[in-house]
């Protein structure tokens, strides 16, 4: 029982990092884009640290939401970066483009004991993994476009993920509001691992057998950053992910949309 609780707390912590870290990185990049802040930013080390919290709904039956408070940390350097659970090397970077090789922790998982549904408790656990891949970002006066492709390197799900997004920052005196839209693609291996029902699981749980193909899951989000002082910023992010049919058709899934919200207070070193 203690191990289950500890595992849940660890996963919740990692999940919050995944939700908050991209917001912290966006805040740092947005800060650098303000000419008035250039002198203040020049003496900083590229580190962000602070405290935040997150809440995310789960698509799995019998599991409602996950959330926890935790510290936040990030680093943006000339060649290296750390954005929560993602870190890597800037192969090329200038004011308008960024091409990276990165490694990311994938928090996606399912623990049968967490579910309140009796049949779900009879299914196999599905574990998180480590993903490695390429990321490209283009920044223009018309907004920011980003694309990432990554694959499982630990042999857990043997899957491939791709993500394409577009964001347009709206800047005011001390506030930046950034709406964003995108789509996430997961291949059949990924979906099969996290959402399939095997023949043995079907016999045990009573769920029908299921083996999904690849799926596209669009999403929309909104990020707000408030510059409080030269060093301090407050950030908040909300996102809705609309799961693809191959995912929502799974007997394991009861929600077609998942929602996440994260907020934090950051200090730039």
Task: Summarize this entry quickly.
The chain is of the alpha+beta class and 269 residues long. The protein contains five helices and 13 strands. Strands 1-2-3-4-5-6-7-8-10-11-12-13 form a twelve-stranded antiparallel beta barrel.
Q: Care to describe what's here?
A:
The chain is of the alpha+beta class and 269 residues long. The N terminus is likely disordered.
- Poorly predicted runs of 5 or more residues: 1-43
SS field, number of helical segments? 5
Structural class: alpha+beta
Shape: globular
* Series of H and E elements: HHEEEEEEEEEEHHEEHE
Radius of gyration: 19 Å
In round numbers, the mean pLDDT is 85
Strand runs, count:
13
Q: Which strand order does the major sheet show?
A: 1-2-3-4-5-6-7-8-10-11-12-13
- End-to-end CA span: 40 Å
Instruction: Assign a percent range to the helix content.
Output: 10-25%
For the biggest sheet, the summary is: 12 strands, antiparallel, barrel
Strand content: over 45%
Which helices and strands appear, and what pairs or packs with what?
Blueprint: H1 2-33, H2 38-42, E1 47-57, E2 65-76, E3 80-83, E4 86-93, E5 97-106, E6 129-140, E7 143-152, E8 160-167, E9 170-171, E10 175-186, H3 188-195, H4 199-205, E11 215-227, E12 232-242, H5 245-248, E13 257-268
Antiparallel strand pairs: 1-2, 1-13, 2-3, 3-4, 4-5, 5-6, 6-7, 7-8, 8-10, 9-10, 10-11, 11-12, 12-13
What keyword list fits this structure?
single chain, 13 strands, 269 residues, 21% helix, globular, 5 helices, 12-stranded antiparallel β-barrel, disordered N terminus, alpha+beta, 46% strand
